[in-house]
Amino acid sequence: MSTTINGQKWTTQYPELGTDPIPIASCLSQSNFERERERIFRRVWLNVGREDEIPRLGDYFVKELEVSQSSILVVRGKDDVVHAFHNMCSHRGNKVVRNCSGRVGGFVCGFHGWKYDLTGSLVHVPDESQFFDFDRAEHGLTPFATALWEGFIFINLAPQPAESLEDFLGELGAGLRGYPFNKMSLAGTYRAEVRANWKITLDSFQEGYHVAFLHKRSAGRAYSDRKNPVTHALSFRLFELHRMMSIPGASGYRPTPVELIAHRFGSSITKVGNDREAFNPRPVVLNPTKSASWVFDMIVFFPNFFMFLFEDTYFTYNFWPIAVDRTLWETKLYFPRARNAGQRFSQEYARIALRDTLREDGNTLEAIQENLASGAKTHFVLQDQEILIRHSHKVIADMVGETV
């Protein structure tokens, strides 16, 4: 497996990234974390869910974003439009909604009974005549800028976003049009709070270098063999903020007997080869090298949203900073709706197979953060196949006003 393109290493195709080691300090600095909070998470578009989580009028969910110190109420209004609001009563600041999700005709604050409709308008105030120069129209729920892309819900905490969601997602978002997101449904979720900086969690998934070693007893068998012993990518693509890489399967992979049964009826992270149920037309950005050994593309939308897109399944990660050394890691797995028992078994097996690899990945994160705090090392040393990590740190540093 070649490590070069056009006779040069991948990193040298992007001279602005450099090849020097990457400073560790930003993963430990409280002041840097506060700048990331203000200059990234309070300014850019953030994925908070999918609209099929709220399919009916009045369906809602609440998303707590500690990084922005915000409680976010997302609801499908009677106008069939997805709205997002600060989950904060205009009277005295109480959280209007306490349940994580549900279906309602309106929202009533439990503190003093102020009622809001599904578009956020204030429609009832007990003892309203006792207020001074009071106009209900001026005291509705405070909205977030909200937009949809391929069924995914994005919000922007900035009062006036610098750009539209379409412009923010750019060429990468446009190039994914046609992927069958709407033909797949949520099949499993995992959530974990890890004691590690959010950039450490991102870094752990932005290369295939670790697969043959960390996952040698699980998914690694499907992506590492004698021809490609350390899972070199088929390609990397870097955009202004976002990035992606294409991963091939191992030609010498031999599934276990139970994997063979699972693969027969559906998809899995360990299913490689040409027997996947293909969809057409394939989005233009997927498998850019048109390789017959391609299995999936990993898409990273800045700052914290990962998509792992296979031919017939996908899963996502969101990494939400909580503190300089704590991160909430959310995983969601999607499949076509199972039509028979065989497909149901296959999907359940795939869900557990993914869980096992996630546990292996998670095992390293807190150990890394603990070691960084020792001060024994001051820099990360990156090789060419870790170009996405280099790009990630460069983009973040540029956003917070530092030089990597």
Walk me through what this model shows.
The chain is α+β, with helices and mostly antiparallel strands and 404 residues long. It is built from seven helices and 21 strands. It has helices at 30-41, 165-175, 198-203, 211-214, 257-265, 341-373, 387-400, and strands at residues 4-5, 8-9, 22-23, 45-50, 59-65, 70-76, 82-86, 101-103, 107-108, 115-116, 122-124, 145-149, 152-156, 184-194, 235-238, 243-248, 294-301, 305-310, 314-323, 326-336, 379-380. It has a seven-stranded antiparallel beta sheet. The protein has a four-stranded antiparallel beta sheet with strand order 7-6-5-8, with no helix packed on it. Strands 4-13-12 form a three-stranded antiparallel beta sheet, with helices on one face. α5 (257-265) crosses α6 (341-373). The protein is globular, with a radius of gyration of 23 Å. The mean pLDDT is 93.
